[in-house]
Amino acid sequence: MELESLAVDIADAIVQVDSSGECFRAFQPGVGPYGEPQLVKLIANKLSQLPRYGPGVRTKRNPDLLIPNQWALEFKITRPFGDNGKEAESWSVNLLHPYPGNVSALGDCMKLASYTGDEHRAMFVIGYENFPAKIDLTPLIDSFELIARNILALKLSSRVEIRRNNLVHPVHQTLRVFAWEVF
């Protein structure tokens, strides 16, 4: 299974969760406010319904999601704005903290690089923007790649990006799924 096909399936799973109109906790309807563990579990449930992945898809502590004999995946969510439409404080830290053993996307890439399973390894960033974007995620993603490749010497594939517009949430209106295979 190619990384791009997997990214499309993950984006489609997120859109399915979004279109249900369900609220996460006391937030407004839509997928944007979901926390990482809750969203990854919903993604796993949706993928396990597809024959190409099967019922073995499961969430774990390390990696976040395992598709046995196919993929070991780590996820991070980034959203510049909160449910209330105000800019979130420290919203980019989840991606860029460049130290081993932390919970950033860079830390997760370091974990994936040392993963010993037979599966391919990939880092996914789930991003949400307004439409049109008030804060474009592209500079953050470019920074992530720059630090990963040039500072930490991580080996990443080319970026895969899938975009979906017209989400239910009034603030998190555009979904951007970014993925890299980690070698």
Q: Domain count, please report it.
A: 1
Distance between the termini: 16 Å
Roughly how much helix do the residues carry, as a percent range? 25-40%
Q: Beta-strand level of the residues, as a percent range? A: 15-25%
What would the average pLDDT be, to the nearest integer? 95
Largest sheet: 6 strands, mixed
Spatial sequence of strands, sheet with the most strands: 1-2-3-4-6-5
Poorly predicted runs of 5 or more residues: none
Number of helices: 5
What's the overall geometry? globular
What is the ordering of alpha helices and beta strands? HHEEEHHEHEE
The count of strands amounts to 6
Rounded to the nearest angstrom, the radius of gyration is 15 Å
Structural class by sheet pairing and helices: alpha+beta
Explain the overall architecture:
This protein is an alpha+beta fold and 183 residues long. The chain has one domain. Helix content is 31%, strand content 20%. The protein has five helices and six strands; from the N terminus they run ααβββααβαββ. It has helices at 3-19, 36-48, 93-96, 105-113, 138-151; strands at residues 58-59, 65-67, 71-78, 120-129, 160-164, 174-181. It has a six-stranded mixed sheet with strand order 1-2-3-4-6-5. Strand 1 and strand 2 form a beta hairpin. Helix 1 crosses helix 2 (36-48). The mean pLDDT is 95.
Short description:
This protein is an alpha+beta fold and about 180 residues long. Helices cover about 30% and strands about 20% of the residues.
Outline the fold blueprint:
Elements: H1 3-19, H2 36-48, E1 58-59, E2 65-67, E3 71-78, H3 93-96, H4 105-113, E4 120-129, H5 138-151, E5 160-164, E6 174-181
Parallel strand pairs: 3-4
Antiparallel strand pairs: 1-2, 2-3, 4-6, 5-6
